[in-house]
Amino acid sequence: MPRPLVIGLAGQPNVGKSTVFSILTGLTAEVGNWPGRTIERREGSARIGGREFHVVDLPGTYSLTSNSEEERIAREFILRERPDVIIMLADAAALERNLYLLAELLLLPIPVVLGVNMVDVARREGVEFDAHVLEAALGLPVVPMVASRNEGVAELLQAAAAVADGQRDYAPDRPEIAAAHREVYEEVCTLVAGAVPEGVPDSWVALKLLEGDREVTERAAEWLAPEPRARVQALLREHEDAVLDVAGARYEWIGRMVRAAVRRPKLGQVSFTDRFDRIATHPGWGLALLLGVFALVFWVTFSVAGPVQGWLEEGVVARVATGLGALLGGAPAWVQGLVIDGLLAGAGIVVTFVPILFVFYLALGFLEDTGYQSRMAYVMDRFMHGIGLHGKSFLPLFLGFGCNVPAVMGSRVIESRPARLLTIMLAPFVPCSARLLVLAFLVPLFFPAFPTLVAWSLVVANLLVLVLIGVLLDRFVFRRERLAFVMEMPLYHLPNPRTILVYAATNVWTFIKRAATIIVVVSMVIWVLVSYPGAGVDDSYLAMFGRSLEPVGSLLGLDWRLIVATLSSFVAKENSIAALGIIFGSEGESLGQTLAMVITPAAALSFLVVNMLFVPCVATVAAIRAETRSWGWTLASAGLMLASALLFGLLVYRLALLFGLGGAGA
Amino acid sequence: MLKQVLVTIASGRVGNTQELAAALGTSPAMVEAMVGELEQRGLLERVGDCGDACAGCPVESACGPAVRGSAWMLTAAGRRYAAH
Ligand SMILES: Nc1nc2c(ncn2[C@@H]2O[C@H](COP(=O)(O)OP(=O)(O)O)[C@@H](O)[C@H]2O)c(=O)[nH]1
Ligand SMILES: [Mg+2]
Q1: What angle do CA A591, A592, A598 make, to 5 degrees?
Q2: Structural domains of chain A, ranges and CATH numbers in brackets
Q3: Is residue A75's pLDDT more than 90?
Q4: Which of B70, B74, B75 to mutate to test binding with chain A, by most A CBs within 10 Å of its CB?
Q5: Residue A460, Cβ density class (10 Å: 0-12 exposed, 13-18 middle, ≥19 buried)
Q6: Ligand nearest A13 Cα, by number?
Q7: Orientation angle between helical segments A560-568 and A541-553, nearest 10 degrees
Q8: pLDDT at residue A236 above 50?
Q9: Residue A370, SS3?
């Protein structure tokens, strides 16, 4: 009886190796450790068609460098234990990534057969691959499989046996090193020839040396005589950049292999993306679409969630207040006040915004999940091109659409320090999703009649300010700066309702938890400050403090109440809403009605503008400190935001007064 | 081909990964694989990753995962290779 055929099972993580291994070895599998290592070694035997196989499951690896323990184990096994054949598994939907390992395996002196697994998943994603074409291109057996349904596993084993027995053609096409480094490679080959141990191919050692493989470099120093060693070291020092050529040649080879064999969705997703992006990333239409999308998000939010919010406020919070009032009838007045006028009016009003929040997050989640969100920054950049600004001078800022922190971090692409600092200073001007959220909160309070129009106009105004800044930057700062930068543009796909729901629910839940902690605490503090020393809200400590700032605030139409609400947002943006709820809550009407009576539309607009431009959130401040490594610049940034909040607030207020919006009632 | 990726990004001629694929005459899937490789080798770096900066931000919940890190830039080493 012939000795069992030894098979090494290789592949990147999660390609189905363990699944195939269990199918092949069943109950015979044994688990041990690789000698001297903590990583598990699984092996077992299989008996198929009267033939005995011994299968060893190698650790999942992306390549065969010496960077990780797993990779060193895999290549050591192949070189030392010399299996008869290697079965490599690849993920059919990610061959471009998976074949890198094959390119490395083909350098070793053991024949390889390729199992292309998860064909079912690939097909579902619209990726088609032709096993015959790939087989012809690679020059080795290729077996399509669905391991989880035990499809193709027997064929794979047969192919492996046939190759090991020499019954099947095996003439693999291997990657070749790029022309620029072929001579060096050949010289290193000659230098190491004869010095490397039996069974380790010279060509492999030469390539690994050029790749800068740590382990091989150390070993080679021992193997080589002093003279060739010095020469090899000199060559490697001189050709440091060969690393990229070696790996790059592998990708060129992969590109060649998959070109004819893999068809990615051309009809459908890609063509839809191409066609839609012709509009969505067009300098003019794209911008129009972006503005339309903003308007739609606000409109949906206000028209769907607005009525629910009103009902919660009047139907639930008001009743709870009455109920609590009866319940606490015997309690001291300050307890009643703290609970009803503090907690309920502050944190309670914030909680009634959950429907608005939920719908808003659903809309954002939708944009994100379809892939549209990553176009927003790009569209703005295209727009800048459209108005004659070239060079991607402004792109880092647009990363800030989701969150200002990335925009601050993104400034790293800018090489000159003055330009980088300036970009960092301007990053908080980008309307991040948190600010949009606060806008979605506050606008319907002040402008219940046309919230969409107001919210949309504020966003557009903010974008215009950005464009203005962009023009100035481009003219005076970035003139010669070239930024090395690419954006990821995922394909559009049908949104997954579950993903979006989970996204919205997670965010709303986080929000509720915060309402239960920070906002509750701030609400109570504010209540205490407006209730004492006791003569009435207008004579409270908070009013005294707010009044001390009124000389400045009144220029922009902000009375002490709006000033205090703005300041409280420094801790957390939603606090400004809680503060409004408490300060204005004592009138007995709903918050919206009270505000409409007390605050003029001009003052409301000014308040909204100030709140949008006010000092950025803690995370952004921290990022600015980290990137500039300077408290001075961090303070300068906060100062700049404060100054522009005041300036634009003033501007908007005065303009609104000119347009006659200074009267009472929105 | 990896070097061309770096050189093309460094040239500033392309704005996004689709244009990069077109410029290199290859598929977006290949570009994705190569960009991943270059990132792993420390030659490209994701920008827009909040990293630790977002932890503890009061409005952290307002950022979805997809808005973070949607672009790549050359690292100092990447710039060196591209200029080689
Ligand atoms: N749909 C599908 N799932 C598979 C297939 N092969 C394996 N899987 C699943 O993919 C996951 C990872 O497989 P596993 O064998 O653990 O991968 P390993 O990391 O390579 O060992 C498991 O949940 C398997 O059930 C396949 O052909 N089709
Ligand atoms: Mg496994």
Answers
A1: 85
A2: 5-164 (3.40.50.300), 179-263 (1.10.287.1770), 285-436+484-518 (no CATH)
A3: yes
A4: B70
A5: middle
A6: 1
A7: 100
A8: yes
A9: helix
How far is the C-alpha of B9 from the C-alpha of B75, rounded, in Å? 11
Ligand 1 touching residue A152 (CB < 6 A) = no
Distance in Å, alpha carbon of B32 to nearest chain A alpha carbon:
8
Q: Chain A within 8 Å of B13 (Cβ-Cβ)?
A: no
The ipTM assigned to this model is 0.88
Structure-block tokens of residue A36: 């001297």
Q: How far is the CA of A90 from the centre of ligand 2 (A)?
A: 13
Contact status, residue A110 vs residue A8, Cβ threshold 8 Å: yes
CB-count burial class (<10 Å; 0-12, 13-18, 19+) for A560: buried
**CA atoms within 13 A of residue A128's CA, in its CB half-sphere:** 8
State pLDDT tens for residues A595-636: 777 888 899 999 999 888 887 777 788 888 888 888 998 998
Whether the CB of B22 is below 8 Å from some CB of chain A: the reply is no
Q: CA A38 → CA A59, A70, A73, B4, B65, distances in Å?
A: 12, 10, 11, 40, 34
**Cβ of A405 and B57 within 8 Å?**
yes
Confidence of residue B67 (pLDDT cuts 50, 70, 90): very low
What tens digit of pLDDT does each residue of A321-356 get? 788 778 877 777 777 777 777 777 777 777 777 887
Does the beta carbon of A518 lie inside 6 Å of ligand 1? no
Tell me if B48 and A489 make a contact (CB, 8 A cut-off).
no
| Contact (CB<8Å) B67/A392 | no
Q: Is A4 exposed, middle or buried (0-12, 13-18, 19+ CB in 10 A)?
A: middle
* Chain-centre distance for alpha carbon A279: 24
Is B76 touching A (CB cutoff 8 A)? no
**pTM score above 0.80:** no
Out of A378, A402, A412, the one facing B63 most closely (by C-beta) is A402
Q: Does the pLDDT value for residue A287 go beyond 70?
A: yes
- Give me the residues paired with residue A54 across strands: A6, A45
pLDDT, one tens digit per residue, over A393-444 is: 566 666 666 677 777 877 776 767 777 787 788 888 887 777 777 788 788 8
Residue type, A367: L
| Structural domain boundaries enclosing B53 | 2-83
Most confident range (mean pLDDT) of A277-281, A449-453, A518-522, B59-63 is A449-453
CB A621 within 8 A of CB A634: yes
Q: At what angle do helices A226-238 and A214-223 cross, to 10 degrees?
A: 150
Give, for A179, the enclosing helix (H) or strand (E).
none
Strand-pair partners of A48 = A51
Query: Has residue A481 got a pLDDT over 70?
Result: no
Instruction: Output the pLDDT for position A104.
Output: 96
User: Looking at the 3D structure of chain B, how many domains does it have?
Assistant: 1
Residue among A470, A313, A293 at smallest CA distance from A375: A293
Report H helices in B1-84: 2-11, 17-24, 28-40, 76-83
Nearest-atom number in ligand 1 for the CA of A121 is: 1
For the domain that residue B19 is a member of, what is the CATH number? 1.10.10.10
Helical segments of A242-353, H only: 242-261, 271-280, 285-300, 306-311, 318-327, 333-336, 349-351
